[in-house]
Write a structure and sequence with these properties.
Number of domains: 1
Pfam family, one: Prenyltransf
Organism: Buddleja alternifolia
CATH superfamily: Decaprenyl diphosphate synthase-like
Shape: globular
Order of helices and strands: HHHHHEHHEHEHEHHEEH
Family: Belongs to the UPP synthase family.
Keywords: Coiled coil, Transferase
Helix content: 40-55%
Protein name: Alkyl transferase
Bound molecules: farnesyl diphosphate
Length: about 350
């Protein structure tokens, strides 16, 4: 009987060792492939798709690491900004390898790769969007905690995205509404988050428009990080609208043609709602190397960072990598800024 039990235990141990050995070999092969690929060697690679059963509960649990286990929480450090602001119980942090004086004030993000994330798992695209929205919540919390980031602008839906299927558009609109009505509202009330939506709001469903107005309105005196959501946004739309407004002022004698300059344009852009309209750093996930009609005016001097990871997998360690890369470029700025 005892012999039987030890045989079962030995067999179990052998299986576990085999599984671990296989996983180690796969990891080594993956790393070797990355080093050999000149594109991947300069970029951070995404994790292999996690094995997730085809059920929404598993999906929810799989991509939402608790913030208490995060690197940001581990490097926590208090700051005067926290103490002076009764509405913000946030403990600001500065992970050790980042320099506070080189932090980007405005980070812009093109959240790309939801479709591929879902496809890799044999899931419908809506699950990819759902995963992306959960990840966005975590990203806002992480940016909010990093001392120095004043504005986070995310590209959530472009003027071109209206051409997607009705089912996908309806899904996104109703989830954007839930996201703003619950998570964003909670953050504006409890943690002093500022909130604005930029884009052609008139095309959004009425109920989404009123949710946006009410949360923007209730957050207008907040002083914490400004979260800007580009919804139904296109840079060409924005520049055309700014031009129309300026032209109409000239027509009505409010402005003279000779007084039109870059500052006047900036004042008529949708980003005039923030005091830091020009992103210092743009991140586009999923390895695509385009700006896709995002903030064309404002990106004139922005640093670009293109991680391979798909947005639902883009986690705080990747954010810190992006910030470190940004800071390395800034320290070398044209070989002048030592
Ligand atoms: C978090 C969440 C649920 C976000 C919504 C998902 C979604 C629609 C993301 C699109 C983001 C975007 C506008 C990417 C760029 O344009 P593009 O990919 O449409 O342009 P392209 O054709 O140039 O790639």
């Amino acid at each position: 009987m005892n012999d039987d039990i030890s045989k079962v235990v030995d067999d179990g141990r052998a299986s576990i060792m085999k599984i671990e050995e296989d996983a180690r070999k796969k990891e080594e092969e993956r790393e070797k492939r990355n080093i050999e690929n000149p594109l991947f060697s300069s970029l951070k690679l995404c994790n292999p798709p996690r094995k997730i059963g085809d059920n929404r509960q598993n999906i929810r649990e799989s991509f939402s690491p608790p913030i208490s286990r995060s690197r940001l929480a581990a490097t926590s450090d208090s700051n005067d900004e926290t103490d002076n602001n009764p509405k913000s119980p946030i403990q600001f942090v500065m992970p050790g390898d980042l320099r506070p004086e080189l932090m980007p004030k405005h980070v812009a993000l093109i959240m790309d790769g939801h479709g591929r994330w879902a496809k890799n798992r044999g899931l419908p695209i809506e699950d990819g969007h759902y995963a992306g929205l959960q990840n966005l919540k975590q990203l806002i919390l992480n940016c909010r905690k990093l001392l120095g980031i004043k504005v986070l602008t995310v590209y959530a839906f472009s003027t071109e995205n209206w051409n997607r299927s009705k089912g996908e558009v309806d899904f996104l609109m109703s989830h954007f509404e839930d996201f703003i009505q619950s998570f964003v509202k909670e953050q504006t009330m409890g943690q002093d988050l500022r909130f604005s939506v930029i884009g052609d709001k008139s095309r959004l469903p009425r109920s989404l428009q009123s949710t946006i107005s009410s949360v923007e309105e209730s957050a207008k005196f907040n002083r914490g990080m400004h979260f800007m959501m580009a919804l139904s946004y296109g840079a060409r739309y924005e520049i055309t609208e700014a031009s129309k407004k300026i032209a109409s002022k000239v027509e009505n004698g409010i402005l003279r043609t000779k007084d039109i300059n870059e500052t006047v344009f900036e004042q008529h852009m949708l980003t005039s709602v923030t005091e830091f309209p020009n992103p210092d750093l743009l991140i586009r996930t999923s390895g695509e190397l385009r700006v896709s009609n995002f903030l064309l005016w404002q990106l004139a001097y922005t640093e670009f960072y293109f991680p391979i990871k798909l947005f639902p997998d883009f986690e705080e360690a990747d954010l810190i990598d992006a910030l470190s890369a940004f800071q390395r470029r800034r320290t070398n700025f044209g070989g002048r800024n030592k």
